Amino acid sequence: MNSRVLNGANEVIARRPASEAADRRANRSLVGGVNSPVRAFGAVGGRPVAVARADGVSITDIDGNRYIDFVGSWGPAIVGHANPRVLEAVHDAVDRGLSFGAPCEAETELAETILGALPGHDRIRFVSSGTEACMSAVRLARAATGRDLIVKFAGNYHGHADAMLVEAGSGAITHGVPTSPGINKELARSTLTCRYNDAEDVSETLRAHEGRVAAVLVEPVAGNMGLVAPADGFLEALRDLCSRHGTLLIFDEVMTGFRVAWGGYQAICGIQPDLTCLGKVIGGGLPAAAYAGRRELMDLVAPVGPVYQAGTLSGNPVAMAAGRATLEICQQPGFYESLSRASAEIVRHIRESAARTGHAVQTDSIGGMIGVSFAQRPPRNFEDAKACDHDKFGRFFHAALDRGVWLPPSGYEAWFVSAAHGPEEVSQACSALDAAFGALG
Ligand code: PLP
Predict the structure, then answer these.
(1) Which among 180, 402, 418, 434 counts the fewest CB atoms within 10 Å?
(2) Which protein residue has the closest C-alpha to ligand 1 atom 1?
(3) Can you tell me the distance from the alpha carbon of 393 to that of 416, in angstroms, rounded to the nearest whole number?
(4) What confidence score (pLDDT) does residue 183 get?
């Protein structure tokens, strides 16, 4: 298939007949034509675009259109798609077998690399998805404390395990209301929801349920309601409150881990969680995730301790090889500095384009994560994120897509930048985004 790079300023994709046909066909066998809901474009309208290949900074659809990608497979592709060094490590691993169901050295090698970046954590358990990592960390916290309740924040996403799929109610001590049918209501009631960036809400909740909260689970930078940075002192207050109430602090760094800095956001903020959940980047594009903590906590997990947790494909040798090769690239001097520079440059261009075209846009970046919201003020919590102009984001999304820029199909998602976003790609993407702002009218 021949692919072409669009000149975003003045060339627009009018139709994608092959993608449309593929979507019609997919809908006859796959639920909604997809295997993960956000891929269906429900938040932005239109038909999903079927991908033929991904390489470096670009995605090529099955009609042959090439796009500059800011989704990066929802985070893992931090060194660019199909990075030759990662592919070489994967090929080498594949040649030695796909899965052993027994220990292999690649697991220990990746464990050592990750633990070397997480001071205060000395044991890790690999699983296959971020959902599993968060679910298992919560089970461990309940076992370690002998308590049942957990606190999470409205607008934070921790995968789709029942206890975590609980929406916000308003007020500090609102008992959980399930976000999805099918969730056991008794279980949902064990999840308490607080406002993000509101330490007072957490303080009241812990006081109201004194001695009953096993863990506070938080995205240290929220990336599932756009990009919402922690307010000054918020994470420090969580650490302090958890320590005072005998509650474990769990950082869900599935998204931020090795994406915002070597070692994740905890390396930036200097706060030590009791447990950390990881995923995305540590699998280098293959299914791998993990939870980690200090030895006395992690040793409660089977086979050393009684907390059961297992996985047929956990620590899969091919995924471990992809993760290790990816982290080796991330560990090179200057990696995160240049990733952050590329993100900041994109943010600067977006601000200029929004100002030039008269659209109120809030945008910021941390490491390789960018947030873009159509709003008058920077969102601080889920209420603010919901109040952003999501219809306008939907129109912007399509205007960008038609000009060759592949954005996440929802205003609630962060954008991801990779090492493959060099100055030329950034400049090309930004001129297409500028044209997309212009097209909003
Ligand atoms: N935690 C966070 C912060 C996430 O962003 C995600 C997924 O986007 C998850 C957990 C769940 O990870 P997975 O989709 O691998 O189950």
Answers:
(1) 180
(2) 158
(3) 17
(4) 84
pLDDT in tens, 195-238: 999 999 999 999 999 999 999 999 999 999 999 999 999 999 99
Closest-lying ligand 1 atom to the alpha carbon of residue 134 = 10
364-384: per-residue pLDDT in tens?
A: 999 999 999 999 999 999 999
Q: Which residues contact 223 (CB under 8 A, 6 or more apart)?
A: 255, 256, 369, 371, 413, 414
Distance of alpha carbon 61 from alpha carbon 50, whole angstroms? 6
Dig out the tokens for 394 from the structure: 């939907």
* Ligand 1 probe mutation, 254, 286, 291, 382, most atoms within 8 A of CB: 254
Q: How far apart are the first and last CA of the chain?
A: 35
Phi and psi torsions of 123, nearest 5°: -140, 150
Q: Which residues line ligand 1 at a C-beta cut-off of 6 Å?
A: 74, 129-131, 134, 157-159, 219, 223-224, 252, 254-255, 279, 289
280 is catalytic: yes
Between the alpha carbon of residue 155 and those of residues 179, 202, 206, 293, 364, the distances in Å are: 11, 15, 19, 25, 18
CA–centroid distance, 255 to ligand 1, in Å, is 7
Write down the pTM of the prediction. 0.96
CA of 355 to the centre of ligand 1 (A): 33
Distance 131 CA to ligand 1 centre (A): 6
Question: Is the bond preceding residue 303 a cis peptide, omega within 30 degrees?
Answer: yes
pLDDT digits (tens, 9 = 90+) for 292-325: 999 999 999 999 999 999 999 999 999 999 999 9
**Torsion over CA of 295, 298, 304 and 305, rounded to 10 degrees?**
120
Atom of ligand 1 nearest to the CA of 130: 12
Nearest CA to ligand 1 atom 14: 130
Distance 438 CA to ligand 1 centre (A): 33
Q: Name which of 61, 41, 40 is nearest 52 in CA terms.
A: 61
The C-alpha atoms of residue 154 and residue 147 are separated, in whole angstroms, by: 21
